[in-house]
Write a structure and sequence with these properties.
88 residues, mainly alpha, 59% helix
Length: 88
């Protein structure tokens, strides 16, 4: 089984899957689309889950990437909330 492919819409450069840097570089829509691309990738599916031996739907690599993207979206929303509270 091959590792999940990097979403083509998310050319991360040299910083890898650092959630803080992803939040600084990409808009929330691009991050959410990348999560969808990872979930749609057949290589991201955990074969143990398909066989009924695991509750983990995605492979560890896919889960790590999805979590980094989700944290990046959270950081963006948190920064927007703080900016809004500071402006009020």
């Amino acid at each position: 089984m091959s590792a999940p492919q990097i979403p083509p819409s998310l050319d991360r450069g040299a910083f890898g899957w650092d959630a803080v840097k992803l939040a600084d570089v990409y808009p929330s829509a691009a991050l959410a689309a990348a999560i969808g691309e990872i979930h749609a990738d057949p290589a991201a599916a955990n074969p143990e889950h398909a066989a009924g031996r695991s509750i983990q739907i995605y492979t560890k690599a896919a889960k790590k990437r999805t979590e980094a993207l989700a944290w990046a979206i959270f950081y963006q929303k948190q920064a927007a909330s703080r900016a809004k509270a500071g402006a009020a």
